[in-house]
Amino acid sequence: MSRRCSSTPGGEGVHSPDLSRVPAQGSPPAQAPARAQAQAQAQAGGDGALAVGDGAAVAVTVALTAYLHARAGEFLRGLRLYGDSGADTAAATEAARSLRMTARRIGGTLHTFRPLLDPVWADGLRTELSWLSGTLAQEHASTARLNRLLDALARLSGTATGAGAGTGTVPGTGAAPDIGAAGGGPGRGALTVGAARAAALLERRLTLARTRAHSATLQALGSARCHAVADAVAVLTSELPPAPAAGALPLPDGADAAAERRLLDAVAALPLARAGHPYNAEALLNGLATASAEELQDEPWHRVRTLLRLHRYALEVLGPERNPVLDRAGQVLDRHRDASEAAAAAAAAARTPRIAPATAYALGVLHADQRHEVEAARFAFQEIWQGSIAVQAAL
Description:
The longest helix is centred in the middle third of the chain and has 38 residues, at 119-156. Helices cover 68% and strands 0% of the residues. The chain has helices spanning 33-44, 54-84, 89-112, 119-156, 186-221, 224-235, 254-268, 272-275, 282-287, 291-318, 324-350, 357-387, 389-394. The radius of gyration is 24 Å and the shape is globular. The protein is mostly helical and 395 residues long. Residues 1-41 are annotated as: Disordered. Pfam families: CHAD.
């Protein structure tokens, strides 16, 4: 199966997007400022839809047009690079990463600035981009999760060497946590016995998941659905479908303000006071309950991560400056998500029927280690969020 969306089995009659319109790598957006300004003014004009703050509304629409134009060019370049990668695995991986990140940015921007766009068009394209980015993310997630779990097992069993000795940390100290098997204690021998089998079990399960995700990626990028997404994104390289003139649009900064309010409300619902105490063990205790309880506990943190990412994308539209505090908070929440999903993978492997007790023990220790990583990420996030005045100034 071809990797190109333009080589679409069953996609006969659907023309491939004109990739010649994509600006060269590193070049500024090709859309002329005058054309963008005229389009924005046309959207702002008419029946007084933007009666309040017309000038600022036009400026926001111009910035949004230029941003989506640039991201659409990156998306189409990534699609072309993936199709041209052939047997070059590294090039295919990098192209898929670029496609995934760009699709998320376009989709998040369409969500935040939906009042300034045609809602039907924006919702439809956002749904399709979410499907594509989610499909592309599965293979990367399976590979990263396998590496993370194998590194942690090697560290916990005392077989890790060099820089790849895992990522376990103690909140506030940066040291690896002691999970009842430090030094030459009695737990170390039992863990060493089961670690090799646990690693083999995890490798079988996650390699199978990665293989299936790779097949799903190839199928998705060779489908008529992907072809239609590419055609829709190609429209953004030349024009931005405006919102209907009927009805009043919100103030120009209303879209970003709404994203900010949702983020602040979600953070306010987090137990930051408990997360501010190292070894509060909430993440570990609840994680040892059931899979549903673990997901219920982690879900508010995952929601904050998503809302923070949407807010950062909105700030990218309004200005090129990046806030390092928000970037660090996003990285910490990424660590939280990775540790949470790794712990769930270890727990799922431990539920495999008829595994040896030593293997189950090793997987249990691994699960506890990853839940400690969840706790460490929460501790780090509350320190960043509550301890930095720059965060409040940026929001």
